[in-house]
């Protein structure tokens, strides 16, 4: 008889990380009752986990409100990981130069499951309505960088279908149209997207070893600031940057 698969929150380790993730993703400190409700766990279980995390200095409790929040110790761990990431190390100079020649916001993204994770960003000195921050995740099919990566992913259609199913009524995702678009992205070498109203993004993959993309670089700007000439210049600089970076990443 085949055993039923374990729940993602079964066991001490998964539950501990579920608590940490809930705290880090909350915009404000959380009460024990709110954590319990969000995670669907027993209050005694969550309280025991919190006590252990406080002892390890990963969580702190406000003495006046009783609310819990994550400490900067998590940031220390993450900072160490990201500093040593080979893609980020290789990209720094390329991102700076691309931001200089385009004058717009430049981002480095990698795939993280069905999302893209923002590893680095060079903010435009010019006004822009673009708020995605380093360390944030966005469903890959909704971003130019995500499309540039998915265009070379063997499971792209499955990602599109899962993303569409998970969006519910918030926004409709046309899987058939996006499948065609990814083919076009693969052929022309770059992707476009308007995830946020009034902002246009262009992205190209960083092709290192193998047929899949190791990462992608995107350039984002207010749509009103990018005319046809500006669009072509951004794409030209973007493709050149990604090709040069791919050569360096391939040697790492």
UniProtKB/TrEMBL annotation:
The keyword Transcription applies. Signal peptide: none annotated. Keywords: DNA-binding, Transcription, Transcription regulation. The keyword DNA-binding applies. Residues 10-72 form the HTH iclR-type domain. Residues 73-251 form the IclR-ED domain. SMART domains: HTH_ICLR. This is IclR family transcriptional regulator.
């Amino acid at each position: 008889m085949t055993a039923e698969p374990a729940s993602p929150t079964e066991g001490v380790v998964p539950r501990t990380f579920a608590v940490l993730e809930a705290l880090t993703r909350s915009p404000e400190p959380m009460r024990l009752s709110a954590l319990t409700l969000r995670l669907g766990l027993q209050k005694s279980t969550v309280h025991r986990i919190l006590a252990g995390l406080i002892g390890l200095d990963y969580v702190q409790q406000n003495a006046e409100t009783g609310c819990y929040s994550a400490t900067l110790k998590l940031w220390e761990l993450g900072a160490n990981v990201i500093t040593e990431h080979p893609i980020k190390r290789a990209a720094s100079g390329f991102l700076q130069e691309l931001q200089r020649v385009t004058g717009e916001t430049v981002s480095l993204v990698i795939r993280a499951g069905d999302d893209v994770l923002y590893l680095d960003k060079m903010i435009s000195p010019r006004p822009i309505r673009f708020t995605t921050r380093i360390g944030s995740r966005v469903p890959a099919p909704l971003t130019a960088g995500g499309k540039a990566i998915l265009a070379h992913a063997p499971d792209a259609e499955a990602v599109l279908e899962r993303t569409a199913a998970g969006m519910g009524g918030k926004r409709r995702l046309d899987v058939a149209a996006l499948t065609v678009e990814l083919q076009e992205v693969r052929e022309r070498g770059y992707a476009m997207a308007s995830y946020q109203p009034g902002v246009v993004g262009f992205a190209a993959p960083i092709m290192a070893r193998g047929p899949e993309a190791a990462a992608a670089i995107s350039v984002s700007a207010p749509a009103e600031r990018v005319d046809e000439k500006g669009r072509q210049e951004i794409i030209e600089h973007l493709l050149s940057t990604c090709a040069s970076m791919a050569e360096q990443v391939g040697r790492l």
